[in-house]
Amino acid sequence: MLERTQPVQIPAQSSAVYVSLNEKELLAGADPDDTLLVFELNVAGRAVSRGEVFFDRMRNLKLPLQPNMQRTISGAGGKYTITLRSPVVARNVYISFGNLDVSLSDNYFDLLPGDEMVLELKSDADLETLEHAMQVISLTDAFFDQRPSYRAHIAADAPAGSTSYESRH
Q1: What is the pLDDT of residue 6?
Q2: Which domains are assigned to the chain?
Q3: In this predicted structure, what is the pLDDT of residue 163?
């Protein structure tokens, strides 16, 4: 893991390039499908913004299947806190409460290994109802399927000794 810190002065209401990196040097032989670059902006020692850069298309990334995120929800009186942790990268985390009327402080975010995400939640539902209805999924959870792939399914259904699909005109 490479870590670099660079102090910058950013005027209010401005935009500029503060870091420029060479992808080839940055990867230094690492697999782009298994590598992630994280930028974090800290003000007075507190992270106020974070961005991730992936080096390939989402479909090619080696994201962990079913990240097994730990979650806790606490609070009462309409104001609650959700705390999430993941031992691996969890991409595009989404929290749902079905048909309950819920307001979340954030949704669709990335959770990095060892990081903790604390969200504020407002709802008239009680804690037990919220705990029961809460679903937390990531991008890989949404597409994970125990069934065989399309190609494996076709191969399993093909009669013994048959050939692949043929196209005749």
Answers
A1: 85
A2: 23-60 (no CATH), 70-143 (2.60.40.10)
A3: 41
